[in-house]
Amino acid sequence: MKEYISKYFTLRKHNAQVAWKKAKKAKMCYAFLAPYAILFTMFYVFPVVASIYFSFTYYNILESPRFLGLQNYINLILQDDIFLTSIKNTFMIAIITGPLGYIMSFLFAWLINELPRWVRSVAVIVFYAPSIAGNCYVIFSVFFRGDAYGYVNAFLMNMGIIDKPVLWLINPDYMLPICMLVILWMSLGTGFLSFVAGLQGVDRSQFEAGYMDGVKNRWQELWFITLPNMKPMLMFGAVMSITQAFGVCDVTMALCGYPSTDYAARTIVTHLFDYGFSRFEMGYACAIATLLFLIMILCNKAIQSLLRRVGT
Amino acid sequence: MSKKKKETVEKAYKKKLIKRRKPNRSIIGDIALYIFLLMVAFVMAFPIIYAVNSALKPLDELFKFPPTIFAQHPTMDNFSDLFVTMGKSWVTFSRYLFNTVFITGVGTFGHLIIASMGAFVLAKYEFPGNQSFFKLVTVAMMFTGYVTQIPNYLILNKLGWIDTYWAIIVPAFASPMGLFLMKQFMEGLPTSLIEAAKIDGANEWMVFSKIVMPNVKPAWMTLIIFSVQALWNNKASTYIYSEERKTLVYALQQIQAGGIARTGQGAAVLVVVMIVPILIFVFSESQILETMASSGLKD
């Protein structure tokens, strides 16, 4: 046993020495990477670590952080009803818009792929535009205005479906579905682009081989030829849509207000903003951020292991 | 006899294959597909078309009920109003515009250079820490920027950058998405290109700036569009509190908070905010798609 351990350590030492020698030779590489690496560490790696550290403390910027242990997390889960609402809302939004947006992205990318070249490039612009159109989603607050002059209300009243205007963005029953609708409208984003590009890169000869082997319709073609070829893009698209689905806050804040009626449209991120930048309870806000971070990473890992099985 | 028949059948099949690229498609399916796509495209485009048209509507048309989708007498009044009415306010509209343009321009330029430099060595050289650093970058794409916002605030505060443009610009340099896409794209460059340049006596910086960068122009556009999209839409209200350094999106929110009297101007700002990323995308679509083809995440 002892021998084994000492052997292990000599091996490790040797490896480290080799790496060190290689690193010395590759000074130029580090010089090129340094500007990015420093900034990346400063604004992405370090903040995550700091956020985990602060989540165990009481910190309000003015006083130095005071260690609390797990108290923030206990308060979050056992006492903060609004946080539970926000978790529920975020998960509702993520579970519905995440997979649906992902499937929509792939479906439309795949359907567009059939079109002639110039139609396809117009279609890509039309479908992709909502997600880069910035704050264009605020236009939905005009459509869903609560009085009889809101377009949706007016339309439904003229059709005789409702007899008095519905307060779409103030009534808690309707807030989340409307937000989901808007998020879905914007969900053909980076993943969609990746799918469009990936589909164009699938080897033609594979399809021809497929026809010979008796692939009957487009659905069989999709499952047996296209999907297995698209695996790396599918992974990338999944990362993008999960990140987006759990980070929802702009849309709910713009449409339903901040804070929204009864906190019915509060998400984890809005809760984080509330504690971090309105109440300055940084420790508590960091606990929220850490939980959100863990949820996102775990979800990503789970989906990735699921996607590895596609088409096999 | 039967052999001959078989051959003719095969020949006919091959002919058909050449005629129509995909023989396993039904015509009805194609028509249904076109109709379906048209409907969806209409739904997707409607809010944007509506927004652009309301920015072009004169005041009396804006409040017409039932509303018209297309402006009957399109004017540019709303846009000129932005400069005229807001020209008298304490912080003029052109100032907001300048702030956003400055932040977007500098942030995107720096991001392009710094991320490309990193991506170049990650893609083309072997050195200890190469793989693990890239893994770390991909992990960073898996969570939103909101997670790191509070520690970021503290760091920027320590640096003394709160309430300056740098609070928005410098963190944008390190966006993981740009490095990821650039690195994936650069891996497609032939290594022999770099080796040939080295034999001719070029040093690493020359190789990077003279050989690699001109060859990855499609990836530039992709980095630019993602960076512009993030920075142009940046509200920046947490890091910047001086009115004269605030951004266009913030101005948009204020104008919209101004209520019914500002409806026309609100619509005009909305168009200004959304048109820039869309235009960049329209003009660089083919290059962006070329880059995205190598965007896949391999394990």
Describe this structure in words.
The complex is a heterodimer of chains A (312) and B (299). Chain A is built from 15 helices and two strands. Chain A is mostly helical and 312 residues long. In chain A, α4 packs parallel to α9 and α4 packs antiparallel against α12. Helices cover 71% and strands 0% of the residues of chain B. In chain B, α5 packs parallel to α8, α6 packs across α9 and α13 runs antiparallel to α14. Chain B starts with a helix and ends in a 7-residue tail after the last helix. Chain B has two domains: 53 residues, no CATH class; 208 residues, Orthogonal Bundle (MetI-like fold). The radius of gyration of chain B is 26 Å and the shape is globular. By secondary structure, chain B is mainly α. Chains A and B meet through α1, α2, α4, α5 and α9 of A and α2, α5, α6, α7 and α8 of B.
Q: What is the fold's blueprint, element by element?
A:
The complex is a heterodimer of chains A (about 300) and B (about 300).
Chain A: H1 2-25, H2 27-54, E1 57-58, E2 66-67, H3 71-79, H4 81-112, H5 117-132, H6 140-143, H7 151-159, H8 172-185, H9 190-200, H10 204-212, H11 218-229, H12 231-246, H13 250-256, H14 268-278, H15 282-307
Chain B: H1 2-19, H2 27-56, H3 59-62, H4 77-85, H5 93-124, H6 130-140, H7 149-159, H8 166-173, H9 176-186, H10 191-199, H11 204-215, H12 217-232, H13 248-257, H14 263-292
How many beta strands in the DSSP annotation of chain A? Answer: 2
CATH class division of chain A: Mainly Alpha
Distance between the termini of chain B: 55 Å
Strands across the major sheet of chain A, in which order?
1-2
Nearest-integer average pLDDT of chain B? 83
What is the percent of helical residues of chain A? over 70%
- Assembly type of the chains comes to heterodimer
Instruction: Outline the biggest β-sheet of chain A.
Output: 2 strands, antiparallel
CATH class of the largest domain in chain B: Mainly Alpha
Helix content of chain B: over 70%
Structural class estimated from helices and strands of chain A: mainly alpha
Radius of gyration of chain A: 25 Å
Shape of chain B: globular
